[in-house]
């Protein structure tokens, strides 16, 4: 279908897919076209669940068909944030590899954000400070990959940096990202004890 072709075109071009990879991706996507690109108006919770499940099956089949490395290239090239990052890099006359290196920082920052959030030895305030520090220290490798102006442009649109800076740990998934916000400690109960 033309919908599948238009969706696949930018991702497959960006990952420099071979003719065999293009045919394989198209065949896999076509199996799920009626679920992923269902016509109609509003999306029901059931349709959303079916799309999520179909996307998981697509990703699993692509990994099986292309191997882990090329499947990772495809998933990255399919991501809107990555495509935006490539456009920023191209405006700065940087290679696509610079965009890929900057994009991959999300994963290491996600791991570090969980380490901070799960550290039982840190208070809530210390965790918030550590998250803000992590977001700030992530700027240096972004600038090293992209240069100052491209890194600044990317940081404005990189939600994950802003989530970490606000005290959230992030998990990067094939189809997006989940966020877990730090919870402040609950105040001690001020209810007087009941006397009999």
Name its key features.
10 helices, mainly alpha, two-stranded antiparallel ribbon, 196 residues
Describe, in plain words, how this protein is organized in 3D.
This protein is mainly alpha-helical and 196 residues long. It is built from 10 helices and 2 strands. The chain has a two-stranded antiparallel ribbon.
Any chance you could write out the topology, listing elements then pairs?
Elements: H1 2-14, H2 19-31, H3 33-36, H4 45-66, H5 68-78, H6 80-91, H7 96-117, H8 124-146, H9 148-157, H10 159-165, E1 168-173, E2 176-181
Antiparallel strand pairs: 1-2
In brief:
This protein is mainly α and 196 residues long.
Based on DSSP secondary structure assignment, what is the total number of beta strands? 2
Question: Which structural category fits the helices and strands?
Answer: mainly alpha
Secondary-structure element string: HHHHHHHHHHEE
Secondary structure tally, helices: 10
Roughly what fraction of the amino acids lie in strands? Answer: 5-15%
């Amino acid at each position: 279908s033309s919908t599948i072709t238009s969706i696949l075109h930018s991702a497959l071009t960006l990952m420099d897919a071979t003719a065999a990879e293009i045919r394989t991706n198209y065949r896999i996507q076509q199996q799920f076209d009626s679920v992923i690109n269902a016509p109609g108006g509003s999306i029901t919770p059931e349709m959303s669940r079916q799309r999520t499940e179909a996307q998981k099956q697509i990703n699993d089949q692509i990994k099986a068909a292309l191997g882990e490395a090329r499947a990772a290239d495809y998933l990255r090239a399919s991501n809107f944030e990555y495509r935006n990052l490539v456009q920023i890099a191209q405006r700065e006359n940087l290679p696509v590899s610079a965009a890929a290196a900057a994009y991959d920082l999300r994963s290491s920052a996600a791991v570090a954000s969980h380490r901070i959030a799960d550290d039982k030895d840190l208070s809530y305030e210390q965790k918030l400070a550590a998250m803000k520090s992590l977001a700030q220290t992530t700027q240096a490798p972004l600038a090293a990959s992209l240069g100052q102006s491209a890194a600044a442009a990317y940081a404005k649109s990189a939600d994950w940096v802003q989530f970490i800076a606000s005290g959230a740990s992030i998990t990067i998934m094939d189809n997006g990202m989940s966020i877990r916000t730090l919870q402040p400690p609950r105040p001690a109960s001020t209810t007087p004890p009941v006397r009999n």
